[in-house]
User: Fold this.
Amino acid sequence: MSILDDISAFLQKGRANETKAAVEKALEEGVGAKDILEGGLMAGMNIIGGKFKRNEVYVPEVLIAARAMNAGLLPLKPHLVSSGVKSRGSVVIGTVKGDLHDIGKNLVKMMMEGKGFEVHDLGVDVSSEKFVNAAREFNADIVCCSALLTTTMTEMKSVVEALKASGLRDKLAIMVGGAPVTDSFCKSIGADLYSPDAASAADAAVAVIESVAKSA
Ligand code: B1M
Assistant:
């Protein structure tokens, strides 16, 4: 078994300490951070996701696998983000109301920090009112909403509407993402940007800031 298979297997069993140690070992062996993320951690989580869908595992098993994933991400963070980049802008991020999934959101946050953004993480189950208040408090350039459920992605429209009502809408960009979210959904709710994964989200955030700077 390769070290990536070990990481995947530990994650599936929810063994957080072993997952973290195996990630550290892979890094020591010179395996790339992106390979560890995709071939180890996300591969393991995808297997759990499939079993969850087929009712072969239940919420507690998925929850402990998610904890193991978060533990495995810790040693990976400094390798995924580049250091010494000056602050590019202010980002407010959260998982929308009713939704407790935070792994993808945490990855987006990590990648954006790596690009030099100051990221204010509101956590999970975030109401549109909280998004608006944080956008005002932190003078946000970009508001990022994550959703993993078809039943909660509609909350993103409430965030767009609340930002319009607050008068902040035209002063910032709204980015949406998460497994069920699509570009056409993004357009249909009046958000500005859809990104399919964390790395594209960070690149799109940089592009937005650069285009604003050019037109200023
Ligand atoms: Co949930 N769950 N879950 N779950 N869960 C899914 C999402 C599901 C697809 C499983 C399935 O049926 N196959 C399904 C949703 C079905 C649907 O609506 N279409 C589902 C369900 C049904 C549920 C519950 C309703 C189950 C129940 O209670 N009966 C329940 C809902 C709870 C709630 O939120 N109110 C529930 C609960 C949970 C746990 C709490 C047990 C746990 C979450 C723990 C946690 O996050 N701390 C959990 C998990 C872990 C999953 C799966 C297995 C994995 C999700 C994950 O973290 N993936 C998931 C099945 C799957 O995805 N295979 C499933 C890894 C992560 C890196 O990917 O989050 O997609 P992802 O992020 C990606 C991109 O989407 C993107 O970047 C990341 C990659 O680079 N991205 C963005 C994400 N946010 C972005 C924002 C952006 C841009 C890109 O810009 C702002």
In short: The longest helix spans residues 59-80. Residues 42, 45-46, 48-49, 52-53, 59, 62-63, 66, 98-105, 107-108, 144-146, 148-150, 175-180, 195, 197-198, 201 surround CO-5-methoxybenzimidazolylcobamide (CB under 6 Å).
